[in-house]
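Bench notes, bay 3.
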Amino acid sequence: MNILDQIVADKRKEVALRKSLIPYKQLEASVLFERATISLSQSLKNSTSGIIAEHKRRSPSKAVINQSLNVQDVAKGYEDASVCGMSVLTDGKYFGGSLDDLLVARASCDLPLLRKEFIIDTYQILEAKAYGADVILLIAAILTKEEIKQFSELAKSLDLDVLLEVHNLEELQKSIMPTIDMLGVNNRNLKTFEVSLETSKALSNHIPDDFVKVSESGISSIEAIKELQPYDYKGFLIGENFMKTNNPGESARSFIKSLL
């Protein structure tokens, strides 16, 4: 079993437990469930930098990245740096995140927030809405075409943007549907954890212009972004590069200043 299969197996158990503790109706009664969402796809279309900055404490590939920062400071720092959006890891076992991180980020900034999670159940989409997210991530590698359709339609009915992540052409072709806002190409092979920007370049021509193109993973330099911009990428998800510093917001600010 590879790492992705293991994460999904654990996630199914976790979601089953959460559903038994907090019913759907309780999520729908959340104060944040009725808030107007902020569109990340629109933010990216109107941006010159396209930076989506991440809050991530650790990962299976890098172990500990940064355990010492609090989410409030990171969120405020990213907002002050004028990033386009913030990605918040909510997986606990493998990434050290939680839904409380999402809640704190929501209370701390007015950025579009992406719930970065391994979504395998509609329940998690309602959770995302209830905890203040504006965007959900769907990972094509772990979902069928029918699930992508069902989950993205539910997200749109809740006014959530949908970022669909692919790793290859086969995943991309099964994922193209009108309920997707952004197509993210993950440059990291989730089975081997090797990273190559060539993945984004190779898939760019296969992504219709209706979708905002986002490149994810392995983007740690201005050069990488400049290399991908000619391929019509509008969004760049940057996690470890900012989080491995003592001040992610300041790192993001100087990165964006250099980029522009």
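Next record in the batch:
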Amino acid sequence: MSFFKRHPNLVIGLAATVLFALLGLISLVWTPYPIAQIDIGRRFLGPNAAHWLGTDNLGRDMASLVMSGTLTSFVVAALAVAIGAGLGVPLGLAAAAWGGPVEWLVLRFSDFLFAFPAIIVAILVTALFGPGAINAVLAIGLFNIPVFARVARGGALSIATLDFVAAGRLAGLGPAAIAYRHLLPNIMSLIIVQGTIQLSLGILAEAGLSYVGLGTQPPATSLGLMLRDAQSMFLIHPWLTLVPGLCIVLIVIGLNIAGDGLRDAIDPRLRQVNANVVA
């Protein structure tokens, strides 16, 4: 109870995120109905005992689709965050540790990637390889690389002048060892917090890409794909749109609240670090 009083945002945000994540994980082994089971005779049913969230225009169970779609959204966003952090953090650390031409190259590379939003990258990838969830992961992941690179660089620069880093240099440690032994451990909290933010943005991006037909493709499903399928029936059957839409909103709000609470719980000084990174 005392932890909840100190960090209510973290507890509430994590609870909401874990709830949706568990729903998605459960769909791996069980859903009320198979998501590909079509029954035209039972389409457009409202919530009832047999179908907790009703059925869609093809008679598919909405609860089952939401569970499976939530898993897809989480997996795509998480893989994109892994790509962004796995490539962006080393680049940011290299820029801070070596400086000079290395830092200039990293910053120019980040500027180049920032010039192409995820939707443009997705269109390019789709033109080359076709639409799909894997291509959505690549598009969102590429966009995450400069974000993590700049965050890692900003966080590393804020501690690179501290005494323990100078002591490491005097002990004969090179830039790579300094980055690995001293800079990386001290910016992990910043990377974790940024990861929660990028996870929420990745879920939004995946929903947007699926909505325009560049992300997850049938027979698989995602929350964005459910929105696309229901858009033409919004005025007649708004429930079909409200269910996936509210799920996206609640997941993103939960992740953002959790990220804000995590930042305060780990280190209140991260607010100042974030401000320096943005600046």
